[in-house]
Amino acid sequence: MRFTLIKDIKEDKTMSLILKGFLVFILLFLIADILVMNSSFGISIQKINITLFGNEDEYIDPITKASFLEFWHTQIFFIMMILLSLSAIFIRVAKRSRVIIINILMISAIISLIALPISFYVTSVFITIYATTYFLWHITAMWMILYSYWKLNAKNI
Amino acid sequence: MQKIYKLSIIYFLSFSILLIISAVMLFEQKIGFSFTNVLEYYMGNEEKFIVAKSSSGILKIVLPHIFVFGLISMVLLHFLVFTNHKDKKYTLLIIYLTFASAIFEIFTPFLIINGFEFFAYIKIVSFVLFLSLLVYISYLLFSSIVYN
After folding, report:
1. Whether the Cβ atoms of residue B111 and residue B49 lie closer than 8 Å to each other
2. What is the DSSP string of A98-123?
3. What is the pLDDT of residue A139?
4. How far B60 CA lies from chain A's nearest CA (Å)?
5. Hey, CA dihedral for B62, B9, A41, A125, is it positive or negative?
6. Three-class DSSP category at B21
7. Interface pTM (ipTM) of the complex?
8. What does the DSSP 8-state code read for residue B115?
């Protein structure tokens, strides 16, 4: 996190290049995450419902508690690390509305991670909240990546 | 420290608490918190159809945890440097205890499957201690951000 201490990132071309490379990788991770989720856990309400609770007509078993907890546990770790790194870069390059954007990103990600076990253990109604907030934080994160990249490329930061 | 960084850290702490909750639930679901549960999980139990774990099987689980335990400990602990808790004796103790408990938590399964049954207790104690320390560090950071 050395870049959080550099006064003017624009002047430091090496650090700027490193951060741009890192941003590309975060963007690739987010795109890959959506693709993998689409083919495994599901990103639509119907598919997530089938994954969590199974489908008797199609002979699909529900996910086991241990598998669900492993999935949830892994998701929390990756999301917290990705969002901490991304927000640290975004804070350095953005000037306007950064508090609002960070709040939208973090709150939607936390709600999605809380809605997931509630939908599994309590009520399936929360699947809608999970799916909505999942896309909200992904879109916000992607916007932050593109904005930060553009800012790092711009002549006047 | 700028307010926006404090906000970011508070969110990170919220994620850490979620991670700890999920870890406890996962441990309870897969292993269990009693001495017998831990022994059965690693040594197996024919009556309950629990297969004994092999060294390579444990290594597969341990591998990502070595990196993750080190990373999360480092990230949480390094935030203490920016607080009033920096350079305090108890901070040093917390740092040593965190890394030591993480190492015991990760590597005790290898000792358990090699016949050192006593380490099932160490496994439980180190797991509880490690997570308790992460909660305590989170509390120290949170109180520093909110009250200072």
Report:
1. no
2. HHHHHHHHHHHHHHHHHHHHHHHHT-
3. 97
4. 14
5. positive
6. helix
7. 0.91
8. T
Q: In whole numbers, what is the pLDDT of chain A averaged over residues?
A: 91
Burial (0-12, 13-18, 19+ Cβ within 10 Å), A8: exposed
Number of domains in chain B: 1
Q: Are residues A87 and B8, on separate chains, in Cβ contact within 8 Å? A: yes
Angle at which helices A126-153 and A65-93 pack, to 10 degrees? 30
A22-77: per-residue pLDDT in tens?
Answer: 999 999 999 999 999 999 999 999 999 999 999 988 889 999 999 999 999 999 99
Contacts of B71 (CB under 8 A, 6+ apart): A81
pTM: 0.91
The token pair at B99 is 């890394």
pLDDT in tens, B106-130: 999 999 999 999 999 999 999 999 9
Q: Where are the domains of chain A?
A: 11-153
Nearest by CB to residue B22, choosing from A66, A73, A84, is A73
The domain containing residue B143 runs over which residues?
A: 3-147
Nearest residue to B31 (alpha-carbon basis) of A62, B65, B23, B47: B23
Chain B contact for A81, CB < 8 A?
A: yes
